[in-house]
Automatic annotation (TrEMBL):
This is PPM-type phosphatase domain-containing protein. SMART domains: PP2C_SIG. CDD domains: HATPase_RsbW-like. Keywords: Hydrolase. Residues 467-687 form the PPM-type phosphatase domain. The keyword Transcription regulation does not apply.
Length: 690
C-alpha cells in the first residue's frame, strides 16, 4: 500500500464509470455507498464490497464533516479492481498520514488529532492519494483484485507498523467486514435509553477484534451516584500491563473510560481509541439532550415559581412560600432572613425536607460566634454575594436584592447525597432574585394599602354621632381591594340651628387626585354649613370652588337637613345635586319609594339647579342614601339596578338603621361573585322616636 499523487488512468470496454454530485448532508455517505454498490454489482466485483463500502463511508463522512460543501463522487470499476474519488469544493490541504513504523504514543496522538479515515484507507486500499483542483481537493483509493480471473477476495497486507503476520496466540489483523460493522453500529433511535445496548455492542465488537478477554465501560453522569457500569464484556478487566484503558472524551459533568483486558498492540490501541470516540460522540449527544430536558424543566419550575410568588401580595405569606418552593427541589433545607431598619437579620421562614430536623435547624440558625451560620448570613447580606456555609448545616447563602435594596438572605442547604451543580445554583440565584422582587412588591403593596386605608379613613367620619331620636348608620366597601382611594364619601355634620346635615357624595375617578377633591368637598361643606349658610348657597359656593380648582373632576351630592318636626316626626329638607334619589322605607308597610328631585352635578357648569324636597319621617321610617356603586354592581351584563335596591329595602321596614344598612350592603355584594368595580357607600337615616 502507498499514498500517491493521483489515481491511475485507465479506459477500456469493460470499464464501469459513475459520477454523481451529492449535497453536504448526513445522508450523503449512504448515497455514496449506494453508488459504489451498484458499480460493484455491474462489474461483478462483489469480493471488494466490504472494503469499498468502509472506505467510501470514511472519505464521504470526513468530507461532509470538515469541508461542508457539495461532494463529487466518481466510481470507476474494471476487471482489475475499483477506484473511488471523493472531491469537495473547500479550500485548504488534505490531512496527510505518514505511513511507516511509528512510536505507539506518537501514533495514538496523531490518530486522535487527524481522525481514523486515512488510517483505514492506508490499511485496506491497494493505493490511495490526493488530488488538487482550482475548485477544491479530493482523496481517492484503489482496490485491486488479487486474481483478475476471480480467484477470490484480496487479503490486504498489514502496514509496516503492524509487524510480522500474526502467530498462534496473537491477535489477527481486523477484517474490513469487522471494521465496517464497527463503524456502522448506531444506537436504536426508538429505544427509551439506547446507550447501554449501544455501548455493549461497541464493546463486544472491539473486544472480539483485538482479542480481549474482558472489557467494561464506566460512566459518571455527575448526578452524585458516581461511576456506573454502562456495558460489560467477558471477565472483569484485571489490573496489569495488559490492561488497556482509554478515557471517554466527554464534557463535564460526564466522565468515563473504556477498559479492555488486552495488550496495547498496534491495532488494539487505535481501535480502542476509535471505539471510545464513537461512544463519546453519542454520550455527548445524551448529555446535551439531558441538559436540554433539564433546562426545560428548570424553565418550567421558574415560571411556576414566578406565578406563585406573583399571586401573593402579603409579605408574610410570600416569605413563607419561598422555602416551600426551594425544598426539596433545590436543597435539603432553606431559611429566609429579612433585614430590619437597623440592618439586623430576622428569621422570617424556614423549612427542612425532614420535618424532624426543623427544631435543630432553628437552633443552628440561632447560634452565635464568628463561624456560625448567622455570621455567614450577615456576611452574604453585607457583601451582596453568594457565601458558602460550613458544617453542620452545609450549604450557601444568596443575598435577596430587589431594585438595588438589600432585603435579607436566602440560605439553602446542600442535597443529602450530592452538591448542587452549576445549573441548580444558577436556578437558585434566579429564584432568589424573583423572591426578593416578590417580597419587595408585597411590601410596596402593603405600604400602598396602608396609605390608602389611612387616607380613606381621613375622608370618612370615624364614628357617626349618637343623637336622641335619630338613628344613623353607614356601610362602606372600597374597590381595588383596599389598595386605592375611592371617591365616595359620607358625613353627618351638626348645624348651628340644632339640626343635623346628612351628606353623601361621589367624586369622579379614583386615586390620590380623587381623594384630594373629596377632601376639598368635605371641608367646604363643613365650613359653610358650620357658618349657617343655607344649603342652596352651600351647593352654589361648592360648585364655584370645583369649577376653579377641581382639576376637571365633578361631584354628585345628596344633602339632607334633619330636625325635629310636629309630634314625633322628623322634618327633612332634601337637596340633590346630580345624585341618585334616596329610598324612603315606611314603617307602616307598603313598597319603598324613591323621593326627591334631581339637580345638577357640581363642577361641570358655572350655575346649577338644586330643587328642595321637604319630607316628614314618622317613627320607624328610614331614608336610605347610596352611591352608584350599589346600583351599578354587575353580574355579567346585568346591573343590580335601582329596582332591586327598592325591592331589597321594602322588607326592612321597622328595622334599626344598622340592620338596614348591613342587609342592603350584603344584598348588593352577594349579587355578583366579582370584586366591586366601584366604591359602595350606604348611609341610613331613621326616625328612632319611641
Amino acid at each position: 500500500m502507498s499514498a500517491e499523487a493521483g489515481p491511475a488512468a485507465k479506459t477500456g470496454p469493460d470499464e464501469h464509470v459513475r459520477r454523481v454530485r451529492l449535497p453536504a448532508d448526513r445522508r450523503t455517505p449512504a448515497a455514496a455507498r449506494a453508488v459504489v454498490r451498484s458499480v460493484l454489482a455491474e462489474a461483478d466485483l462483489d469480493e471488494l464490497l466490504n472494503e469499498a463500502l468502509l472506505l467510501t463511508t470514511e472519505l464521504s463522512t470526513n468530507a461532509v464533516e470538515h469541508a461542508r460543501t457539495e461532494l463529487d463522487i466518481e466510481v470507476t470499476a474494471d476487471q482489475a479492481g475499483l477506484t473511488v474519488t471523493v472531491s469537495d469544493f473547500a479550500a485548504g490541504p488534505v490531512d496527510e498520514l505518514t505511513v511507516g513504523v511509528r512510536n505507539l504514543a506518537t501514533e495514538i496522538t496523531e490518530v486522535a488529532e487527524r481522525g481514523r479515515g486515512l488510517l483505514l484507507v492506508d490499511h485496506f486500499a491497494s493505493r490511495w492519494g490526493t488530488t488538487y483542483l482550482r475548485t477544491g481537493k479530493g482523496v481517492w483509493f484503489r482496490l485491486d483484485r488479487a486474481d483478475r480471473k476471480g480467484a477470490g477476495p484480496a487479503t490486504p497486507a498489514p502496514p509496516a507498523s503492524a509487524g510480522p503476520p500474526a502467530e498462534s496466540g496473537q491477535t489477527a489483523v481486523p477484517s474490513a467486514g469487522a471494521m465496517n460493522a464497527l463503524m456502522q453500529t448506531t444506537p436504536d433511535p426508538y429505544a427509551e435509553d439506547p446507550l447501554p445496548d449501544f455501548a455493549a455492542g461497541l464493546l463486544t465488537q472491539v473486544a472480539e477484534m483485538v482479542g480481549a478477554a474482558g472489557g467494561v465501560v464506566r460512566l459518571d453522569r455527575g448526578d452524585g451516584q458516581g461511576a456506573q457500569v454502562l456495558a460489560r464484556y467477558g471477565r472483569q478487566p484485571r489490573a496489569g500491563n495488559d490492561l488497556l484503558r482509554v478515557p471517554l472524551a466527554v464534557h463535564r459533568p460526564y466522565a468515563g473510560e473504556l477498559e479492555l483486558d488486552a495488550a496495547p498492540t498496534a491495532y488494539a490501541q487505535p481501535l480502542a481509541l476509535l471505539t471510545a470516540e464513537r461512544l463519546s460522540l453519542h454520550l455527548e449527544n445524551d448529555r446535551l439532550r439531558r441538559a436540554d430536558v433539564r433546562r426545560q424543566a428548570w424553565l418550567t419550575f421558574l415560571a411556576e415559581a414566578s406565578e406563585l410568588l406573583a399571586q401573593s401580595l402579603d409579605v408574610e405569606l410570600t416569605m413563607a412560600l419561598i422555602p416551600q418552593l426551594v425544598v426539596p427541589r433545590l436543597g435539603q433545607w432553606c431559611a429566609v432572613h429579612t433585614t430590619d431598619e437597623w440592618g439586623r437579620l430576622r428569621l422570617a421562614a424556614a423549612s427542612h425536607a425532614d420535618e424532624s430536623m426543623i427544631p435543630q435547624l432553628h437552633a443552628t440558625l440561632r447560634e452565635t460566634g464568628p463561624d456560625s451560620i448567622p455570621a455567614r448570613l450577615r456576611e452574604a447580606s453585607r457583601n451582596g454575594t453568594r457565601t458558602p456555609l460550613g458544617a453542620p448545616m452545609e450549604g450557601f447563602a444568596v443575598p435577596l436584592i430587589a431594585r438595588g435594596q438589600r432585603l435579607g438572605t436566602l440560605a439553602v442547604g446542600r442535597h443529602q447525597r450530592h452538591r448542587q451543580d452549576p445549573d441548580e445554583i444558577a436556578v437558585l440565584e434566579d429564584v432568589a432574585r424573583r423572591s426578593a422582587l416578590a417580597i419587595e412588591n408585597a411590601r410596596i403593596h402593603a405600604e400602598r394599602r396602608r396609605v390608602a386605608q389611612t387616607l380613606q379613613q381621613s375622608l370618612l367620619p370615624p364614628v357617626l354621632p349618637v343623637v336622641e331620636g335619630i338613628g344613623f348608620a353607614a356601610e362602606y366597601v372600597p374597590t381595588g381591594g383596599d389598595v386605592d382611594v375611592g371617591g365616595d364619601f359620607y358625613d353627618v355634620v351638626p348645624l348651628p340651628d340644632g339640626r343635623w346635615l346628612v351628606v353623601i357624595g361621589d367624586v369622579s375617578g379614583k386615586g390620590v387626585q380623587a381623594a384630594a377633591v373629596t377632601g376639598l368637598v368635605r371641608d367646604v361643606i363643613r365650613v359653610l354649613a358650620g357658618d349657617g349658610k343655607p344649603l342652596p348657597e352651600v351647593l352654589a359656593r361648592l360648585n364655584e370652588t370645583l369649577v376653579e380648582r377641581g382639576a376637571g373632576r365633578y361631584c354628585t351630592l345628596a344633602l339632607a337637613a334633619v330636625g325635629p318636626g310636629e309630634g314625633d316626626r322628623l322634618d327633612v329638607g332634601l337637596h340633590l345635586a346630580g345624585h341618585d334619589r334616596p329610598v324612603l322605607v315606611r314603617s307602616s308597610g307598603g313598597p319603598a319609594a324613591f323621593v326627591g328631585t334631581g339637580g345638577t352635578a357640581l363642577g361641570l357648569l358655572d350655575t346649577i339647579a338644586s330643587p328642595t324636597a321637604q319630607l316628614a319621617l314618622d317613627p320607624g321610617d328610614c331614608l336610605v342614601f347610596y352611591t352608584d356603586g350599589v346600583t351599578e354592581r354587575r353580574r355579567g351584563r346585568e346591573l343590580f339596578g335601582t329596582g332591586r335596591l327598592r325591592d331589597a329595602a321594602t322588607p326592612l321596614a321597622g328595622y334599626s338603621a344598622d340592620v338596614v344598612a348591613a342587609r342592603l350592603r350584603a344584598t348588593a355584594i352577594n349579587f355578583s361573585v366579582e370584586e366591586p368595580r366601584d366604591d359602595i357607600a350606604i348611609l341610613v337615616l331613621r326616625n328612632d322616636a319611641a
